[in-house]
Amino acid sequence: MKNKNKICIINYGMGNIHSVYNALTSLGFQSFVTDRNEDFKKADSFILPGVGAFSKAMSNLKDLNLIDEIKNQISIKKKIY
Predict the structure, then answer these.
(1) CA 13 to CA 23: how far, in whole Å?
(2) Domains of the chain: residue spans and CATH
């Protein structure tokens, strides 16, 4: 049975996005990759692929203006898995 939750994989220019997407697909999850705030509303939960360079990752998230919407979706709307 396919999982009905939609998982947003946040593309901030780092991490192995395609491997995460492929793994979720093979497990039966619906997922999509985006770097657009407006797409976050379509998600039930989020994955922010990890990297070893946290300061560079945060810099990229700030440059893409994604931090406030990530906080909104997870902290306020409780879209957490």
Answers:
(1) 19
(2) 6-76 (3.40.50.880)
